[in-house]
Amino acid sequence: MFESLGEKLSNAFKKFKNKGKLTEADVKAGMREVKLALLEADVNFKVVKAFINTVSERAVGAEVMEALNPGQQIVKIVNEELTALMGGSQSKLTIAPKPPTVIMMVGLQGAGKTTHAGKLALMYKKQGKRPLLVACDVYRPAAIKQLEVVGAQIDVPVFQMGDKESPVKIAKEGIKLAMQKGYDMVFVDTAGRLQIDEVLMEELQNIKEAVQPAEILLTVDAMIGQESVNVADTFNKMLDITGVILTKLDGDTRGGAALSIRYVTGKPIKFIGIGEKMDAIEPFYPDRMASRILGMGDVLTLIEKAQQQFDEKKAAEMEQKLRQQTFTLDDYLEQFDQLKNMGDLNQLAGMIPGMKPGQLKDAKVDEKLLARQEAIILSMTKKERSKPELLNASRKIRIAKGSGTTVEEVNRLLKQFEQIRKLMKQFSDMGKTKKGRKALGKMNIPF
Fold first, then answer.
1. Quick check: 446 pLDDT over 50?
2. How many whole angstroms separate alpha carbon 305 and alpha carbon 30?
3. Which of 116, 163, 250, 353 is within CB 3.0–4.6 Å of 274 for a Cys-Cys bond?
């Protein structure tokens, strides 16, 4: 995500480094590099022009010229202006004062509209809402079936009336059902086309008029760059959308769409799709995204991702086990699940200050390796998992055969586990002395 743009901006900022004072010529040369970086990232030309003018105006002002570190001051200005360009602050979904909240999902065919209707339904279900998906795409073959598959994946009901009724009637009946059954959020999945046409727009306008949605969310594919901005602009003029979901942002190293949509349409990006899994969706925070682009990290999102996998009761139990040095292979297995749920390490890298997206390129959680290690542990008896020292040569051969692995892989896993146990013992031993407890306190380790 934004890998090439972040790299090019970083190179542009080098022109400002190690300079005690900046001249207007220095700023002009640096801004030329920033301009090229943005244009190569497929940012809309009008957006680039306005952005460069604003940054240049601030950069040649007193706040930079008289600064102790002009280079850092310019990065600060670019960060602030990038944030403003993308909307300034997070734009939350509007929840209707009287349920159900109706969300109308629109977009071209293939942008991920149906999948993201499901992703949003799952996100709000986790927040305690009762969502309902309504299948109003009666034209695309298997569109209704696709929504039903998505609904089954996330255990959210789907309302459909087949492909013979009009989409307007289906939408109205779906909302009627939601009111009867107590569903407080309704996601209306509408038809898309491969291109914008009058028939599509007229139908969407009719649905909008009939159901009066709280939100009209346009799903656009970030990978198509500048074209996604044109699509957003057209949909907005015809439907007056309330926000955008930018999909496939994990595969877009340029980022032009994210930087252009708000400026061109005046409408905020509300969510971003960052992967294929049903939980691979995030609210869009302009300030956090600007920080990621500039290699300044996104610690808040990183913490939120960790908290989603964090269970306070389990954490307390784990702390007790580490204190008492009773950490077993069963506990080790539990950690695998949490690691798998954190997802792609390359995405997480861009959230760590000082690291750039792509710095952990291809460093994904190897699910095949985790599955093999899981199979090894599950091939052990309960006693062996709690006391790995029992594992002699014949037992290791049995475990390798039972898990479809080799004795070398069994030994490798046991060695890793033993290293972790030694580390935990060191922390525990440190916690027994006053000096050690003081050191651990500084490291925020609760011993």
1. no
2. 36
3. 250
Phi-psi region of 2 (alpha: psi -120 to 50; beta: other; left: phi over 0): left
Q: List, edge to edge, every strand of the sheet that includes 215-221.
A: 158-159, 131-135, 185-189, 101-107, 215-221, 243-247, 269-273, 281-283
* Coarse DSSP helix, strand, coil percentages of the chain, rounded to the nearest 5 percent: 60, 10, 30
Strands 269-273 and 281-283: antiparallel
Kindly state the DSSP code that residue 29 receives in the 8-state scheme.
H
Please report the pLDDT score of residue 319 as a whole number: 57
pLDDT digits (tens, 9 = 90+) for 392-412: 999 999 999 999 999 999 998
Q: Which amino acid is at 322?
A: L
Task: Return the closest-CA partner of residue 86 out of 220, 269, 291, 245.
Answer: 269
User: Domain extents for the chain?
Assistant: 3-85, 101-296, 312-442
| Domain 312-442, CATH number (from 1.10.580.10, 1.10.260.30, 3.40.50.11420, 3.40.50.720) | 1.10.260.30
Two tokens at 331? 């506990």
294, amino acid identity: L
Tell me what the pLDDT averaged over the chain comes to: 78
Which of the listed CATH numbers 3.40.50.300, 1.25.40.20, 1.10.240.10, 3.55.30.10 matches domain 101-296? Answer: 3.40.50.300
Which of 55-69, 184-198, 290-304, 398-412 comes out lowest in average pLDDT? 290-304
Alpha-carbon torsion angle 36, 284, 136, 200, nearest 10:
-30
User: What single-letter amino acid sits at 92?
Assistant: K
pLDDT at 104 over 90: yes
- CATH number for region 3-85: 1.20.120.140
Which pLDDT value is given to residue 45?
84
Phi, psi of 172 (to 5 degrees): -65, -40
pLDDT band of 5, cuts 50, 70, 90: confident
Token code pair at residue 239: 């439907």
Say whether 218 sits in a helix, a strand or coil: strand
Q: pLDDT tens digits for 131-150?
A: 999 999 888 888 899 999 99
Res 303 pLDDT > 90: no
Best CA proximity match to 117, nearest among 262, 245, 286, 21: 245
